[in-house]
Amino acid sequence: MSTPQSANGNRKEKKPLVVCFGEMLIDFVPTVGGVSLAEAPAFEKAPGGAPANVAVGISRLGSSSAFIGKVGEDEFGYLLADILKQNNVENSGIRFDHGARTALAFVTLRADGEREFLFFRHPSADMLLHESELDVNLLKKASIFHYGSISLIEEPCRSAHLAAMDIAKESGSILSYDPNLRLPLWPSEEAARKGIMSIWNKADIIKISEEEISFLTCGKDPYDDEVVLEELFHPNLKLLVVTEGSEGCRYYTKNFKGRVAGVKVKPVDTTGAGDAFVSGMLTGLASNLNLYEDEKKLREALLFANACGAITVMERGAIPALPTKEAVLRILPKVAS
């Protein structure tokens, strides 16, 4: 097993590569906004799945990314693998299951602003990735290994997820975790809380939303720094970021904490905004793996990430709306910093 010194040595030698692990699926989004799923007259298909969105987002911003996961050996599965390839995401870590379908999700933003999800995963291919199917060489190349919590819900994917984390960590990767809570997929609230927290202390970097803080702390105030630091900041954590939608984000490290204002735009569809934010943050980190030690540089990177999220809400869908670096740099001068 690698010593911490050799792990850091590995990190310095690597070319920046963010490897994203988890689910990739087809989102079906209503052709009109502000209606429930039952009221929607028609749906458009859009590629989705948070880890895959992040991989595409990072590539759009000009950094190197890869995706590891499983899809069905069906038309949708081939479409998703091809979308990664078109977006210059390394897709050699994708596996195809001939016995299960690619996951589907119907997603809508109702008139009251609440998102509504209906998932088809009984089981879907992403849940059936086995540890033996992991692309170990790809994992060992990762300077950052990014994942969510949906891949923890069912075996065999849970064991594959845990093994992938271990391989990446031993090879010197920074571990990045976005819980991305989707309660309808978990057997119960308690199972979700326990599952999400089961790998909490292994992460180097965590991105979380206000709603997720409330959920994980059983209703405590998500705006209270003491709640965040006492309940969610663990000794191995290098950076904890709390996203607040259009209001921006807060950041916590061992040495400092603060907040970065959001970038104000007129929102059309919030799908993928959090993933775009993570893409921006991890792009900054990939180019400077000690970013969390320099508050000025960290703030610049988080403002960039806020702008990535803002641009994404101006268009419908997640992957189609993810910005290029040029688009982000165009919007940043307009932001009063």
From TrEMBL:
Segments forming domain Carbohydrate kinase PfkB: 17-324
Pathway given in the UniProt record: Glycan biosynthesis; starch biosynthesis
GO molecular function terms attached to this record: ATP binding; fructokinase activity
UniProt protein name: fructokinase
UniProt-listed GO biological process terms: fructose metabolic process
Organism this protein belongs to: Stephania yunnanensis
Catalytic activity: D-fructose + ATP = D-fructose 6-phosphate + ADP + H(+)
Keywords: ATP-binding, Carbohydrate metabolism, Kinase, Nucleotide-binding, Transferase
Family indicated by similarity: Belongs to the carbohydrate kinase PfkB family.
A GO CC annotation given for this chain: cytosol
Top-level EC class: transferase
Enzyme Commission code(s) on record: 2.7.1.4
Lineage start: Eukaryota, Viridiplantae, Streptophyta, Embryophyta, Tracheophyta
Source organism, top-level taxon: Eukaryota
